[in-house]
Design brief:
Elements (H helix, E strand, L loop, with lengths): L5 E6 L6 H15 L3 E6 L7 H7 L2 E4 L5 H15 L3 E5 L1 H9 L7 E5 L5 H5 L1 H9 L5 E4 L2 H10 L7 E3 L7 H4 L11 E6 L8 H9 L3 H5 L1 E6 L10 H12 L6 E4 L5 H6 L3 E4 L8 H8 L4 E4 L4 H4 L4 E4 L3 H12 L3 H18 L2 H12 L1
Amino acid sequence: MKKNIKVCILINNLGSGGAERQAVNISKMLCDNQCSVSIVTFRSGDFFSETLKEYGITYKSLNCCKPLSALFKTKKEFISGGYDVVIAFLRSPILLACAASFTRKWKLIIRMGSASDGFFASRIGKVLAWLANNADAIVCNSENEKRLWLSNSKIPSSKIHVIYNLHRDLQEVTAIDGNYQNDRTRIVIPASYSFVKNVANVIKAVTWLNDTDKEELEIHWYGHKEGALGDTSVYDDAVTEIEKNGLCGLVHLHEETKDIYSIMMNSDFVGLFSLYEGLPNAICEGLLLGKPIIMTRVSDYTVLVNGNGFVCDPSPEAIRDTLHDAISTSMKQRKEMGNISKQIAKKYLTYDRIQNAWRTLLL
C-alpha cells in the first residue's frame, strides 16, 4: 500500500455499536499500513476515545443533524481535509458521502452492512441505490449483502466486494484458556437494545420454556440502551416484561462494556437473534473466541454455523426450541463446537486475509 494515503472514515457517531467498532478496527489497520486516518462523525461519542489517541487517529464531530447542513459540512470537510480516500459507513453517511462526491478528487468507498430487500424497496433505499453508482467501490460484509446489492441496483458486480469484518484485537485473545464452570447454561448476547435485535421475542421464548429448562438457563444481554438516538423504549419494555414474567433470575440486561470479550469467554454460547443483519460482529467474535454459536438465519449463517452451534428462525417458538436444544448439550459437545468455531474463524476471519483485501481495494 502507498505510504501517507489520507483516509477519511465517515460514520454517524462513535458509540459502542458493531459498525462503529468496525470503523475503528479498519482505522487501526490503515494506520498500521502507514495511512493518515481521520474519523468524522455527525454526532459526538467517545466509547473508543482511548484507542483513537493510542493510534494517533484524528477525530472530528461535525455536530449536525439537519440534512442540508450535514451535506454542506460533509462536502466542506472532504475538500478541506485533502483526503485521498473516503470510506462511508451506514446509510445516512453513505447518502451524504455520495451526494457530496459528484465532483471530486477522492476515491469513495461505501460500506452499509445491514440491508434487506424491504429497505431497498423503500424510497430512501431506492435513492441510496441510485446515489451508490457514484462510489468507486461497495464493500459488503457478507455474500448475502452482495446478493441484495446485485438484485436491487444497477451497480456492476465488479464494483461490489465482499470483505468480512475485521477483529484485530481478537487475534491474540483466541489463545486465552476459557476455563470456566457455570452452574447454568450461560448465553451471552452482545447486541444493542433495538427492535431489529429481537429482544422481545427472546424474552417471550424464555417465558415459554418448561420449568426444568428455566432452572438450567441464564441469559446475559450487553448493549447500548438507546435503540435510536434518545430512544430507550425497547430496553424499557424488555425490563417490564422480565419483571412481569418473573424472569429476573434468568434474563439479565446490562449496558455496553469494554470487557465484553472476557465475558464472552466465560459463556457457554454466544447468541444473536436478530431479524436481519449484515455480518454480525458478535458471532464473528464468538467464532474467534472458540465459542459455540446460536443465531437466527441471517447474513451468511450457513458459513458461520456449521456443526458449531444452532440456527433458528426469529420467532419466539423457534427460539424457545433452540434454547432447549442448547441447554441439552453436554460439556463435551460444547467443547467440540468451540473447536469447530475456531476452524471457521481461521478460514474466514484471519487478520492477514482481511487486511490484504483492503490493501487491494485502496491501491
